[in-house]
Every structure is written in structure tokens, then in C-alpha cells.
């Protein structure tokens, strides 16, 4: 279908930015959202999570698989009888699919397939909301293994209807940066599966709208949404959330995996991926992880594991696929993986995962949530694959 053109705004840039800030705040307040911080299956933050595990953080396959096995088994025990189409579970489903391949443990993929079947391969209730499309990434991955038209039907019907609606240039569809992980890989995945580039063109148009609004071309980082464009840390730096930027990096890696090499707009995604990777490596903490607020490390004494895991996942993907230089980025990947393994407790809990929120915040060391575990398992798969390539 033809792409809708963005009409130039008659408003002065400052007035437009202010209007978008207000709009983003209203959208955030009005969105019903089915993500619950008090869902005991999704995660918790105990005051005393127990001792840390004694694991090697070396980038050796046996050590990587040992760490991944502990975390996957612990998380599986908490969710195996629980179904959810919530965005918080989308990274976990992808992480479980990766864990099945990494650990040769079919129960993880079987669990995800069971959730999809039980839901009729459906999506969340909000038709246009990226959060309620995120689980389709797992459905598409399962379809690639065992094709069944029924697995695509709900997603295709929703996206076909969505593409017929005109863009609202005053109301960006993906108005918060995390959305670039939630929805774009499903659009790119459906385009690849159906060989219909209309889905990819639609995704590209919406990504450009979000990027133009939220991506800082000087800092090479994303603001969480328009209400954060002019917020600052205590040290005076602009406020950039590590988790949001980690999710964007993972979204870029997943989109580039699914996007044809000859797609005309692909170089723009590669460029943004490289810009963000270079900036994020500069901001890596001494322990290998990233703080919740990227530009004021002193204000956030604890690392944030979910954003850090997605950054490590994306960096390892970039090196493996020749998008990033091995010599320049391998040390950061090694430090990041070692830091992630240090967040594992003796029972397999993965700690220092910030609870559901929209900005940097405080949390106890034992805080653990399904999306962070999913990001860790995705990182484990990529780091393991990279370690095997190195050992050849």
C-alpha cells in the first residue's frame, strides 16, 4: 500500500515539542495497560534473596550454558503454569526459545508453544498498542519451525486493518522508545514470513516518525518519550534511561536480522545501530553493566540488568553479523557478560532488574522480573554463539 507522507507542521518547533510532550503524558496516563508490577509470576523484589551463585563469567561455552541453565530453570519453575500475553512476557518467550536451542531443553519452547496455542495465537487487547503486539515475535519464531497458517491469522488480520488506517502525524503510533522492541520486529517478521514488503514499509515509516521525535543525534541515545526530551539528571546531563535504550538496541538487532540485505532503508538502521553501540560502550560501568540513568552514573549505585542484558545481546549480535568490529567491541561484551553472571543468585534468581516503570528508579538487589530474564537468555545465546566462532 502507498506510504502516507508526513505533512510539514505549521507549528513552531518549540510549540510542537511542547504539544508532543503533553500528548505523550496523556497517552501514558490514559493507556489501560495490563502490565502489573504486583503480578507474582512476573517478578518480585525480596529483601533477602540469599547468597550469590559461584559461577564463572568467562566467555566459554560450558560456563555460559551453566549460567543460562540456572536462570532458565529458576524462571521456568515460577511461570510454567502461567499464561500471559503481556509485553513483560514477550522477552521471556524469546529467551526461552533461545534457551531451548542453547541448552537442548525442549520444555522451554514447549511452554511457549503451549501459551500460544492456549491463546489461539492471539495478541493483547489494545489493537494498535505495541505492547500488545510484542508476543507475536515468539509466534513468528515458532511458525518458522513448524508452519501453520493458524499461527499467523490473528496477527495478519490485525496488521492488515492497521495499515489501512491513515497516519496521525500529531499522534505518533510508537510514542515511547521501548515500543521499538515491541512492535517493529513483528512487522519485519511478518514481512519476511509472507514475502510482503508492505509490512516492512509500514514499520519503516513508523520507525522514522519515532526516531525523529525521540532520537538525540548528538548523544546517539533515545529519550523514553517526548515528556523526557527536556528532563535532566542531578548532574545536569540529559536523562536517558538505560533500559529504554537497551530495548531499542535489541529491537534494532532483531529488525536487522529479519530485514532483507537489499532493503533500501537498511543502511539507516545499521547506522543508528552503530551510533548507539559506540555511545553505549562509552557509558559502560566499571562492573561491565549499565546504570539506570546513562549519563549520571554516580546517581545510580546499582546496575540495571534488563537494559544491560539487551545491550550485551545486541553488541554480541552486531559482532557476530559483521555490523560491529570484533576488536573494538569484544572487550565490552566480555565485561558485560561477566557482570550479568555476577547478578545470578544461588537459586538461579537474576537480580538488579528494575521493576515496571518509565524512567530510572530505585530497586533492591534481588529485584527480578521476567523481561530481564528473557533479555539475559537472549544474551546468553548470542554470547555463546560468538564464543564458538572465536574458538574455531
Automatic annotation (TrEMBL):
Q: Under the GO molecular function aspect, what terms does this record hold?
A: hydrolase activity
> InterPro entries of this UniProt entry?
6-hairpin_glycosidase_sf, 6hp_glycosidase-like_sf, Glyco_hydro_88, PolySaccharide_Degr_Enz
Xref: Pfam families: Glyco_hydro_88
> Hydrolase as a keyword?
yes
Taking the record's annotation, the residue ranges forming a coiled coil are: none
| Signal peptide location | 1-37
Entry keyword set: Hydrolase, Signal
Q: SUPFAM superfamilies, alphabetically?
A: Six-hairpin glycosidases (SSF48208)
Region feature Disordered, mapped onto this chain: 36-55
Extract the Gene3D superfamilies matched here. Answer: 1.50.10.10
Q: What is this protein called?
A: Glycoside hydrolase family 88 protein
**Protein species of origin:** Dyella agri
